[in-house]
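Revision sheet: structure tokens.
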Amino acid sequence: MPRRTNNTPRFPLLLSIILGIIILGVKFLAYYLTGSMALKSDALEGIVNVLAAFFAFGSVLYAEKPADEDHPYGHGKIELFSAAFEGGLILLAAVLIAYESVETLIRGTELQSLGLGLILNFAAGAANGMLGFFLVRSGRKHRSRSIEADGKHLMSDFVTTLGVMAGLAVVYVTGISWLDPAIALLFSSWLFYTGAGLLKESVGGLMDHEDPELLEKLVGAMNQHRVPEIISVHEMRTLRSGKYTHIDLHTAVPEHYTIQKVHEVVELFESQVLAVTGINGEFHTHIDPCGKHYCKQCSVANCSIRIHPFEQSPEFSIDSVTAPGPDREHSTEGYGIQHQ
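Predicted:
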């Protein structure tokens, strides 16, 4: 099966860069008019947004480079570095905001034109929220972790902007100015939580942490297109490289089948699974002759080597497809088939 396209649309990230710069300017204007530490914190977060968008755009371009001798699995993992970089920037912003908040709490602050600043900041925050929602949807549609991570960051930024707005509205009504740096300090705590979560998720991807959602999708498709000749699937593993997914597994088939017959059955099964899941990727399948281990769950008719009558073919589950086969030593005697 031919390799699918690995191109990611440029528009979402270009839009993120352009709007990010405009939103950043509006947030700094709001801070300049008010002198609010909380609004300054929100503006500093805007710098992170713009830097992250530039880095994400570069990583997506690099990820589209085809596989070569030095990178046989492609260049897609650069997107995880982009997400990790964004998480690190968020953590840095959180630390800087916390430092300035404590300093402002000690020396005190005087707010000016808070009403206009709140209006400007809310408009910028709302734009961030809509942009973030668009990026998350686009990232999931095109299976781009860089775009999705950028979108999640912007959406969390909108949530924190709403929190800052609510807190500053209290300051505006009550005139208690020390609440401003206190709100900024809470804002930095939320940013630290967001950055740490993004960093953890990115490191998990770089370490090839298994994706339960992906496994569930694959198992559902395998049950949907299972045929009697696919007796068992086990030792399945997945590896994500950008938008491309590599799936390794062992498949037990009737041992009296010819190689040509096995090839046809397995190729059709794999192509159907990829089609129904919409996964952009390939299978690396190791074929195991049944070795008479599966007679009770094998429904192949007129089998000349059967030693037990057929009882039931249990549905595939995540546990069953990722578990070792019944005879691991025997399974090494099979042969490999790769399909894309």
